[in-house]
Amino acid sequence: MSNQRHSSSGTKIKVDLDGSTGIAVMRLQSPPVNSLSLDFLTEFAINMEKLELDKSCRGLVITSALPKIFSAGLDILEMYGKSPEHCGEFWKAVQEMWLKLYGSNMVTIAAVNGSSPAGGCLMALACDYRIMAENPRYGIGLNETQLGIVAPFWFKDTMANTVGHRTTELALQLGLLYSAPDALRIGLVDQLVPEDQVVSTAMETMAKWFAIPDHARQITKSMMRKPTIDKMVSNRESDINNFVSFITRDSIQKSLRMYMESLRKRKA
Q1: Is the peptide bond before 32 cis (omega within 30 degrees of 0)?
Q2: This prediction's pTM
Q3: Residue pair 232/99 in contact by the 8 Å Cβ criterion
Q4: Which of the following is catalytic: 119, 139, 141, 175?
Q5: From 34, 125, 144, 147, the catalytic residue
């Protein structure tokens, strides 16, 4: 039964695991923009746990089932007008997504087939390798400061580990969204391919990673990422408290409201 396929479909995420190749494809399907809501993040964590425990799964490709967007990032509705308790629960789920992905034993490849701002960028950054559609209209970056909010230290660390300290400093202060070609230039993504080849290229790339014995690759990955993970885990409670006290401030709530109103106007 080596070529069995398992597929599980929640409301917001669909996972297909091909037992013969050892590759799972996770498709984000939470319209309109794959916002990282509490429900989405919970479903994501459950799917990651299942795949991590499945011996037949060696690699994971994450992509979007929606056109033009990979993920627009954190769901502002989870942070606007909500109780401190809710905001805390939400933030813990954001931490959990990152911990599961950044610390995964699987080979993880982000097949970024659309724009990927803020939390969407974090999800891609937490993977081992990023392949993006070569469309200059698609942007990727941690653009939190544009909304008057601040990317936490572990977002910053993840980006600095990828593109270096100076580039991260500029990107985070200015809230830059990089076009696909610029993202490749600074090393935020590893490869650009035509949009219809993003997932197939990710599958082909997996073979290169699978050629390395799993245990050697996993230990090396852990060695590279453990200091960043340990730092977050040991500051987890204070990170939640910081987020809650920041996001529930009147001034921040006001800027979230203004941002949502500007989105509504753009749609109209």
Answers
A1: yes
A2: 0.95
A3: yes
A4: 119
A5: 144
Annotated active-site residue 74? The verdict is: yes
Catalytic residue at 99? Answer: no
**What residues contact residue 20 under an 8 Å CB cut-off, 6+ apart?**
2, 3, 4
| Residues 65/16, Cβ–Cβ less than 8 Å | no
Catalytic residue among 38, 41, 60, 74: 74
Neighbours of 14 (CB within 10 A): 16
Residue 144: active-site member:
yes
From the first residue on, what is the mean pLDDT of each consecutive set of 10 residues in the chain (268 residues)?
A: 67 96 98 97 98 97 98 96 98 98 98 98 98 98 91 97 98 97 98 98 98 98 98 98 96 91 86
User: Do 169 and 178 touch, CB atoms closer than 8 A?
Assistant: no
Give buried/exposed letters for 212-251 (b at 16+ CB in 10 A, else e): eeeeebeeebeeebeebbeebeeebeebbeebbeebbeee
